[in-house]
Design a protein that fits this description.
This protein is α/β, with parallel strands linked by helices. The chain has a domain at about 1-190 and about 225-255 and about 295-315: NAD(P)-binding Rossmann-like Domain (Rossmann fold), CATH 3.40.50.720. The chain contains 13 helices and twelve strands. Helix 9 (about 260-270) packs across helix 11 (about 315-330).
């Protein structure tokens, strides 16, 4: 039995691969293009493990996909591969269309051809699991009900628009061709191996270096935060028992403002790695907001709890403490990913703010 995982060297994908192989012996074929956010060091614990087959390649390479599917005969495809940073999508939307829309289309077509040729029993068991985001639903007003699976799509950034497009493709391939798909839309993840362009790891690494902690606008943007390990457990449940053709929202039941998040991180750093220069909050700097910044996201995760019995195991207090401690314990990983291209990106995104 084999899984084909796309984007399994990225943040969520690598956490899923590690989590999966820690719990079962089913082989994972891991396809990743190793762009700036993909990092084989995330998977160092699997070096020499025959259950993990890494393939350096792109989901837009149809010939490669056909070969991998024919050779490894997976029972499921788990599609994590995506360009995922809103700010990067504003500066360069083309990469998001290429990977998230065109790449998903190519993967769907390869999976459809493979699935169509399977025997009856294998066809019935096959699943295509598409991992998506709550950002496809748009922005919520304060006090508005949280996103349910039937909430209309109203994407507001090039990133969320490209993910919405990929969601629609997956739905269409199920309804038109019968491909047995599952879709999950998650809230903001945090945890180990998170590339430090995103809010939580950026605050941690900047604070440790004594650099400014940039908060967009007034910092009152609200997000629901989900520990990545909980996301992985939810995906396992949906893959095992989710209803074909259905969407499941995965959230942490934890709405907080960006400003609250930064203050929480600062409090933990002051406790775990105090600076002689004073409290971490001295570094907080409010910068110009990004264009079209959604004000609030919130996930209603009652469907997955009702149908599959899943709830997050971590509270935000336990999850964020684990996360801060992980970054303190893995300074070598942080140093390696902060390459010249990462520094160039920080200058591009923040210098003019």
């Amino acid at each position: 039995m084999t899984l084909l995982v796309t984007g399994g060297a990225g943040f969520i994908g690598s956490n899923f691969v590690l989590d999966w192989l820690a719990q079962c012996d089913e082989t994972v074929v891991n396809l990743d293009a190793l762009t700036y956010a993909g990092n084989l060091r995330n998977l160092a614990a699997l070096q020499g493990d025959a259950r993990h087959v890494f393939v350096h390649g792109d989901i837009g390479d149809r010939a490669l996909l056909d070969r991998l599917l024919a050779e490894h005969r997976p029972r499921a495809v788990l599609h994590f591969a995506a360009e995922s940073h809103v700010d990067r999508s504003i500066h360069g939307p083309g990469a998001f269309i290429k990977t998230n829309v065109e790449g998903t289309f190519t993967l769907l077509e390869a999976a459809r051809a493979y699935w169509s040729a399977l025997g009856e029993e294998a066809r019935a068991a096959f699943r295509f699991h598409h991992v998506s985001t709550d950002e496809v639903y748009g922005s919520l007003a304060p006090g508005a009900p949280a996103f349910t699976e039937s909430h209309p799509y109203e994407p507001n950034s090039p990133y969320s628009a490209s993910k919405a497009a990929s969601d629609h493709l997956v739905r269409a391939w199920h309804h038109t061709y019968g491909l047995p798909v599952l879709t999950t839309n998650c809230s903001n993840n945090y945890g180990p191996f998170h590339f430090p362009e995103k809010l939580i790891p950026l605050m941690i690494v900047n604070a440790l270096a004594g650099k400014p902690l940039p908060i967009y606008g007034d910092g009152q943007q609200v997000r629901d935060w989900l520990y990545v390990g909980d996301h992985c457990s939810a995906i396992r449940e949906v893959l095992a028992r989710g209803r074909v053709g259905e969407t499941y929202n995965i959230g942490g039941w934890n709405e907080q403002t960006n400003k609250q998040i930064v203050h929480t991180v600062c409090g933990l750093l002051d406790e775990l790695r105090p600076s002689a220069a004073g409290p971490c909050t001295r570094l907080i700097t409010h910068v110009a907001d990004r264009p079209g910044h959604d004000r609030r996201y919130a996930i209603d995760a009652r469907k997955i709890e009702r149908e599959l019995g899943w709830r997050p195991a971590e509270t935000f207090a336990t999850g964020i403490r684990k996360t801060v401690q992980w970054y303190l314990d893995h300074a070598d990983w942080v140093a390696e990913v902060q390459s010249g291209s990462y520094r160039d990106w920080l200058a591009t995104n923040y210098a003019a703010r």
